[in-house]
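User: quick one, fold this
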Amino acid sequence: MNIQPEYGYVDPCMRIEMLLDAEEDHALGSLLALVSASHEETGSSRVLIGPGFLDPSRPQTFFCGRERHVHFLIFLSRKAVRDMDQLRFRNKQHDIFVVVDVKGTKIMLKPDQRRDTDQSMMVVLKSTGTPLEQQFTFTQKHRIPSSDWINRFLPAFGYGRSLLVELPVSIDELKETVRRIESQALGKRLVEAANALERSEQLQRNGEWRSSVWATREALESLQRGGLESGVSTQTAIKDTMTSTGSPDAAAAAVTSMIDQLHSFASSAHLVTKGGKDLKIGIFEKEDSQMIFGSTALLISLIAKKLIRPASV
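Assistant:
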């Protein structure tokens, strides 16, 4: 099965090309397709997208051999595109899996030429199986890689490169980076922050935006609180790491200032009591969660890479 974005229609559209194996020569009775999307390779936890229609520009022959090439068109609503784009963020690689369920009937007949007694040719219908009318069903899955969805499908649908934030850093890569510096005092704090950020990413995939913000706040607290084993404060260690690799003092100070500001932004994501009074819990939506998660991930990545890099002379 192959799936491609289709141009030339008012609404977003995908073309689904399939090879059907009818096992015997046959005539076409009916053919229907139902299209779903999933973030799992197994195709479970599906979201129904809609019906697929046979492409009228590629009419099907009535009689066919064992194999039949078919082209379905699936028209997507704007909501369906947004739902698919959000769904793929529950997959680690941000890929999406399209599942096509096909149902149809085949008539077990094929034309057969015979020579009549007067030597003229006649065509008769020959049975290729019993019962004469048979139903068939099958399911096929197709993976749309994240890069294809971003660079090919979304532009064809009339959108920009992404409806959601694509970070130039993955949490897995970030955790691998901080493991290399775990023996260092600041490195241990970065490991804590990366672990909290991993929880935040999972909450984002589940659509739990406020809880994701709170988990990101915990990551920021790892870069704020107290001092290190060496007696140096965490934020002083961050500034020293930045300046030792050539960053200006103002840039180093800006990094710790951003950590404080992001922490303040996220602080109302959880019930807090101050002076015996419960402070109001903030309302956080997808865009809030994405902003603080992306900013914090890039900050941790920056500090970790500076810590690995040799000090400038």
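User: anything notable?
Assistant: The chain has two domains: 2-156, 171-308.
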